[in-house]
């Protein structure tokens, strides 16, 4: 089971990293990047998809402006996505803290 958990984390890390990189390189616009990230938060959509959309949009804006480093964003988005998969509401706390301005 430990191996599967680690593999799931690695897959999320790769896929979320790809979305962020495609956004930063101009392949995806903000809306496309948000939609790309939303798919990794299936459990969150059942709770409050409007909050999820707002959080992800704000996180993408912060990455775009340089207020949030892409590596840090990727790492924390992976943690939030894993929590979301388990229907653990801590994902919202993680996303909220990322969306806040520092």
Task: Please give the structural blueprint.
Blueprint: H1 2-24, H2 30-38, H3 42-65, H4 70-85, H5 90-99
Helix pairs in contact: 1-2, 1-4, 2-3, 3-4, 3-5, 4-5
Describe the structure.
By secondary structure, the chain is mainly α. It has helices at 2-24, 30-38, 42-65, 70-85, 90-99. α1 packs antiparallel against α2 (30-38) and α4 (70-85) runs antiparallel to α5 (90-99). It is globular and about 30 Å long. The mean pLDDT is 87.
Give the gist of this structure.
This protein is an all-alpha fold. It has helices at 2-24, 30-38, 42-65, 70-85, 90-99.
Distance between the termini: 37 Å
Work out the helix count.
5
- Can you count the beta strands? 0
The Rg value, from CA coordinates, equals: 13 Å
Strand content: under 5%
Structural class: mainly alpha
Q: In terms of per-residue confidence, which ranges show pLDDT below 50 for 5 or more consecutive residues? A: none
**Could you tell me the mean pLDDT?**
87
Helix content: over 70%
Shape: globular
Assembly status: single chain
Reading the helices and strands in chain order gives HHHHH
